[in-house]
Amino acid sequence: MKNQFLTVLFVFAIIVAGTTQNLKPYLGAELLSNDFDQAKEMVSQKMASNGLALVGQYRPAKDYERWVFVYTTKELEETVNKYGGFRGFALTQRIALTKRNGNIFLSATNPKYWGAAYFQEDFDKEVQVFIDVEEKLKSMFRNLGISESVEFGAEEGLYLDKLKNYQYMFGMPYFKDVIELGEFSDFETIKANIKKGLRMYSDDYKFVYSVENLDKKIALYGIGLFGAEGGEQLFLPIIDFNEQKHTCFLPYEILVLDNKVYMLHGRYRIALSFPDLTMGTFSKIMSTPGDIEDALRKVVNP
To answer: Residue 232: which of 55, 63, 69 has the closest Cα?
Structure first.
């Protein structure tokens, strides 16, 4: 029995050690196809055949050269529901297509990077879940004719312990510094409000997806932001200027927990997505975190 226990500990140590290298936010590679509509169809099909359940898709920033797919897996949902709370932000991952120089760049959120950021001290216990999601993702890449992808989005990457307690710089928010967008009588009232808000402001905001667990009263919504103030088409070109595009950083999320609604602080969520962003560039979108908050408050409180 003692030997079995030591073996389990040894295997667990190997798994965790495999994630202690510096992690970067995204995985990417050039897609062989250069037909955008054909590429969208191919990715959608390969997601399904590799166990990545598509929950929503949209054109971010109203840009005809970008497209985002949002997915979840059974294992992700089960793991999030086991913990509840703000772990709900980890319910989904994203894949994107971006046209560049006549080619199509395929990118995806790195499951381990975002899992560590959102699961924090619980990540080591659930690391295998995110490794499994990554394997499904890489299998999809291979099925699309891509033998190897590269991690990108941070020159040096972030060490695991730093990522679990990420802060862009002193004085900036942590993961725990979520913003409460509203408190209501019950879970169903919030869902009705969001539906009403999206209908009322349909020119400015787009429903992209929702993943719900009615028993746990958890729901994660992805919302496209197109308003004249704080819209994706305004801030994305400013911060996403590198050759390897961060298109799959969108859409922005709101999380419903029982009778309250939350969002990640913009100065955390944007910085986590662009950890190498300089203060000079950040200052060009100084109003964006507040604009996003104002926009999502309108959706939740129509």
So the answer is: 63
Domain ranges of the chain: 25-153+175-300
- Answer yes or no: CATH 1.10.10.10 is held by domain 25-153+175-300: no
- pLDDT category at 20 given cuts 50, 70, 90 is low
Helix, strand, coil distribution of the chain in percent, nearest 5: 45, 25, 30
What are the helix and strand counts (H, E) for the chain? 11, 11
104-134: pLDDT as tens digits: 999 999 999 999 999 999 999 999 999 999 9
Dihedral sign of CA atoms 197, 199, 200, 203 in order: positive
Q: Rounded mean pLDDT of 198-202?
A: 96
The pLDDT confidence band at residue 5, using thresholds 50, 70 and 90, is very low
- Distances, alpha carbon 298 to alpha carbons 15, 34, 42, 290, in Å: 43, 39, 36, 12
> Position of tokens 């004719």?
145
150-152 and 179-183 strand pairing: unpaired
